[in-house]
Amino acid sequence: MSTTAENVAQLADPSATTLLRFATAGSVDDGKSTLVGRLLHDSKSVLTDQLEAVEAASLKRGQEAPDLALLTDGLRAEREQGITIDVAYRYFATARRRFILADTPGHVQYTRNMVTGASTADLAVVLVDARNGVIEQTRRHAAVAALLRVPHVVLAVNKMDLVAYEEKVFAAIAEEFTAYASELGVPEITAIPISALAGDNVVEPSANMDWYGGPTVLEHLETVPVSHDLTGCHARLPVQYVIRPQTAEHPDYRGYAGQIAAGTFRVGEPVTVLPSGRTSKVSGIDLLGESVDIAWTPQSVTLLLEDDIDISRGDLIVPSGDAPATTQDVEATVCHVADQPLTVGQRVLLKHTTRTVKAIVKEIPSRLTLDDLSQHPDPGQLVANDIGRVKVRTAEPLALDSYADSRRTGSFLLIDPADGTTLAAGMAGESFATHKAVTTVADEEGWDF
């Protein structure tokens, strides 16, 4: 296993290994922070002073062994209550891969933070207490992972030491969760029995579960296939800033700067600027102060065009042969993350890439019931942690891709114009990957929100 010094060196050299972004989720007290702490500790990714601080804090609380959850629960309120409130990001590495980890909260009122942590994740680790099995919060986290199209999900059945490491307990939970997540359209599910507190099957294989022959959590994280190659996707450049020096050295320079969200741009390529629809050709590409002939995601570049056309922040530059349709009517699935409800007729701001426009919520066709994946029609409003379908009318046209095609240009935020509060995170187009028709129920029995 790598030493701490080696891990730091690997983080400093991004070309050394591949990168995996992953998020942890689960109900409160399922042991997420302990699992993360165990991963960091057993993979030797904890600095000496960090470990000493955790040992000292644990002693103050009357604990003989260091509480590894304290490695991630950094807020004072979290340590006092023994829960995770904020999304805790951690960076570590092994000899095989670098990791960016988002430890998300378990309490229902903080489910919104999972949307933040999982929105860019390649993999989600959903923890389940072996004594409790699959509960409502587990289903909610599985639904969020499916909506955000996280390609890999790990079911970590934790606290196996408290159920005498019984295989039948693990098998029943794994079967129930796999059936549910598969119906949501999660493409890959891996179930692993663990004890984060004791270290079973986290980094080292467990001697207490010889009936399990699969990978440990770290082994799976190190070997799961991930691809960050978005160069073959629809090319998109949201304009962040227009550069016009107007100096003696650059009197006519006009460049359009931004980070390429997906795809590849080449000099000489015909492009279209949306939503105006004006066309031109790429006459030059500046990257890190140098002129290049080609640029790809996620590089931050400045595009130069042959024609002087009206382009400003929020516009989208795309290849002329691969331009998305613009629309003022947006239909999407949203995860509601604010305390105040989202209601029909409400005026909001819609932020898509670098563009923010005024909008009105025209309709809330349905709300998802997590127990049986049915849609309750016309709920009238969405409240915190609800998942539902919305129809929004924008004041100006937007160039939205389907979220299934692009997580960057198919997503948006709904914002309260009064105080800037984020109300909901939206995914344009179809909701779950299965595109399966779900049952509509008209009665109020069985609502889980």
Care to describe what's here?
- By secondary structure, this protein is an alpha+beta fold.
- Helix content is 18%, strand content 33%.
- The chain contains eight helices and 25 strands.
- The strands form five sheets. Strands 7, 8, 9, 11, 12, 13, 15 and 16 form an eight-stranded antiparallel beta sheet that branches.
- β2 and β3 form a beta hairpin.
- α6 crosses α7.
- The longest helix has 18 residues, at 167-184.
- 42% of the residues are buried.
Topology at a glance:
Elements: H1 4-12, E1 18-26, H2 32-42, H3 48-60, H4 76-81, E2 88-93, E3 97-103, H5 112-118, E4 123-129, H6 136-147, E5 152-158, H7 167-184, E6 189-193, H8 217-223, E7 237-238, E8 241-243, E9 255-259, E10 264-266, E11 270-274, E12 278-287, E13 290-292, E14 294-296, E15 300-305, E16 316-319, E17 326-336, E18 342-343, E19 347-352, E20 355-369, E21 374-377, E22 381-382, E23 387-399, E24 411-415, E25 422-428
Parallel strand pairs: 1-3, 1-4, 4-5, 5-6
Antiparallel strand pairs: 2-3, 7-16, 8-9, 9-15, 10-14, 11-12, 11-16, 12-13, 12-15, 17-23, 17-25, 18-22, 19-20, 19-24, 20-21, 20-23, 24-25
Helix pairs in contact: 6-7
Describe, in short, the structure shown:
Helices cover 18% and strands 33% of the residues. The protein has 8 helices and 25 strands. Helix 6 packs across helix 7.
How large, in whole angstroms, is the Cα Rg? 24 Å
Mean pLDDT: 83
Helix content: 10-25%
Per DSSP, the total helix count is 8
> How many strands, what sense, and barrel or not for the largest sheet?
8 strands, antiparallel
Q: Shape from CA axes? A: globular
- Measured distance between first and last alpha carbons: 45 Å
Strand proportion, as a percent range, falls in 25-35%
Low-confidence stretches: 1-16, 74-85, 435-449
Q: Provide the structure class.
A: alpha+beta
Quantity of strands, as a count:
25
